[in-house]
Amino acid sequence: MEATDLIAQYREHPVDQMGVLDRIARIRSRSIKKGSKVQGLKMALNMIDLTTLEGADTPNKVRNLCYKAMHPHDAADGLPSVAAVCVYPSLAAVAKKALEGSGVKVAAVATYFPSGQTNLKVKLDETNYAISEGADEIDMVISRGKFLAGEYTYVLDEIMAVNALCKEHSVRLKVILETGELGSLDEVRKASDIALLANPDFIKTSTGKIGQAANMPVTLVMLQAIWDHYQRTGVQVGMKPAGGISDAKTALHYLRMVKEVLGEEWLSNEWFRFGASRLANDLLMQLMKQETGAYQAAPYFSKD
Known about the structure:
Layout: H1 3-8, H2 17-29, H3 34-46, E1 48-51, H4 59-70, E2 84-87, H5 92-98, E3 105-110, H6 120-132, E4 137-141, H7 144-148, H8 152-168, E5 172-176, H9 185-196, E6 202-204, H10 216-233, E7 238-240, H11 248-261, E8 274-276, H12 278-292
């Protein structure tokens, strides 16, 4: 179906902001038993897209990050690997080689990340380049300027074109909304619904390149959009909050929220990810605390 026809069927879903905040407060208030906590910490670790997206990134930095992705903490046995390593397309081949045989995926940002301010041909060329360099997953940004100008068909056309290219190569697509630039929860819901019309593999909150990154209200609204889309179409779409999630306690709240809104079927790294770097070390510190009864200092954990 054409984007124009899909947009014509789009229906507004106003957000009850007070209801969102009340539900989050209830989720945050619940305690977690020790056995469930350890399981949740390991699950969260296995859901991380370990990320480096800096202009100063080097092949050696990416190799070090890939080693940590496969071996989160050499001093502990039985820890899962993370889900993926996320890099710029120019370093995807380095990551692919370093991760060979591990099961950890290579995710590459594309479509003129982080601004999205270029034409569709450039976006498709960059996506194709990332795939040719070995990316298993593409994290694309939407054209926020076009969205905020009300050009929803333009936005959806781009997502559908990138998604078609990814599917041609059996590559999974995550669509970044950059929710901190959208202005309200109603706009977050609208952007989520429009992105979901393309049936991507994930929708994602943020690039991590602006001050306002992932938070629980935004994520709850996006999870509800995913659930409504699933009820309407039967198509399962994943969720990736990214940026600003740096402590284990918050990560466990996110997992509880996913379970309550979407159910246990979404509680795997096939359908839920954290876009984070600092989170991994806090999860490791908490896991070692559960195992040994004492915290290990930050220097015991590698930064890369």
